[in-house]
């Protein structure tokens, strides 16, 4: 399967129906089977879902957290996957979990801010505890804008680099180990138009804002070469109206 990760940026000057069409077209054109999305607007959710549906994609959003105007969502190619119930979540975490037959997919948006590493670590622990229980029913994917650089406590926890009894396999890391390139920045540098607008809104000089690797695609377990694990086929590209790159990664199919 081809899985995508995309923070779509909660900003749509021309309206969410128009932006939704651009986003959905980008996913359909690449043959994406399922995608994890962040910064999905609460007030534009219906327009976005309609634009996706017109292009054969089903969108399921999580719950809106107090104090936020956007949320996480999972979308999939209608008919390609069989959903089991509606989206669920984890208390205290900005996420959306959608179960399918033999697969669970979680879209996550980490606490934003350079000084909130402890919060992101707490969120990673909560996600790991919740999602690891899904592994008995099939593959488990956790993809999102973690707002965490490589080496941060949350990423180390999921990568099996702490004493915590857990391990997740990351798509770009798999590509590196297989000699297939990367890793690449996922938050676009200030030279990108949307990233420049975001930088200015924070009082930053766009030309001095570098690209950062803060989006990740994790699969539960040490599953190199196993069904549901990453193949190393990864793409990271500036694909549309967002300050984050669109990531796609392929998993090994059950019948491979």
From TrEMBL:
GO biological process: nucleobase-containing compound metabolic process
GO MF term list: 3'-5'-RNA exonuclease activity; endonuclease activity
Keyword flag Nuclease: yes
Protein name as it appears in the record: Endonuclease/Exonuclease/phosphatase family
Source organism phylogeny: Bacteria, Bacillati, Actinomycetota, Actinomycetes, Bifidobacteriales
Protein's UniProt keywords contain RNA-binding: no
Domain of life of the organism encoding this protein: Bacteria
Annotated Endonuclease/exonuclease/phosphatase domain residues: 4-244
